[in-house]
Amino acid sequence: MKSILYILSFFLMGAIEASDFGEFRMPKSANLVLQEDWSSGTIDPEKWYTLHRKWSDGNNGVVRKNVFIRKENVNGKLKNVLVCRGHGDHYHGDVVGYQGNRNRVGGVIVSKSFFASGLYEIVFKIGSKQKSENAPQNPMRPIGMVPAIWTYAYRWVDADKAKPFEFSSKQPMYNPLFKHRKYHANEYWSEIDFPEFGKWQKLGEGLYNTFLQNKHESLIFKTKSAIDGEYHSLKTIWRTELVPFEGLKDEQVAEYNGYYWVQDKEVDYNQYLGQPFKKLGTNQYAVYKGKYARHYIDDEFVGENLKWVPSMAAQLNIGVWFPHWGGKAPWSESSMQISSVKVWEFNDAGDVRGILVDDIHDTMDATGAPIKR
To answer: Is-above-0.85 flag for pTM?
Structure first.
């Protein structure tokens, strides 16, 4: 009977942690590494950069002129906020996107630092309560525009041209077991979306996605409470862990950049999904893994990702864009405003740093013409 009560209490404790942010306790390893409220009146280039690039299909990219700072009333106080502006289908102003097109153009800002496990807190507002000639018919619901907050990092790794179907001592990170669908290459990918608002114009539902190499989970959770033209707090807790890996031998791995990478097709790929290992001793290893990403709006639990959670550090992205799956945007201008950003890193044992390190590069010039690389 005691054992049954113990198990029951264990699951109840887990449910409390998942449903009530007030029960969360910051780990002793936590460190506040990013705190931004735009009080300087400028976008600090030591902390942030803005994007100027084509962004998938159904739109004309994201541009720097659509990211700026202005004064706004935030919960009764006038303060600086960051604006990520979107130009809908009816925009005819001076700002241009891809190939000089003016409509369906957004704006995105990215942190210079790469963060791993931790608590991410963004205070933001979608749209406005104020009606205007250029705003959507319902200014609180800018349909067609997708406001989003996410972590992202990426690395392309080519195979040894002489042996594209094999592991390579020249490039220990290349793994033929998860080659690209078209090329002899790997896409190392770390991303958590928390969330993307507005698929098929349902702003009251958010896409909470995880991307781990060539794996992807997409979940939909309710976000209606944040679609009212007021400021709200988004919090996401990202945890990672080291998981002991039985049977891996020294001769089956190679060291690269402080981590150990599988070099043997006999090792079950589905047990490590291209992630690196930590050496614990002779023929003893543990794999770096993401544990979960748990999401809150105004401290109310909305859902969690438990599958294909990444472990590699990534940059924080904030902005708006116009994918085809957002639908039509029958208006001229709207935006997402960000009042503050805070990131506490937890430094979990499963964090992988220094592997994904590249900034997102521009793909078009000031006129919207493609940049040749």
So the answer is: yes
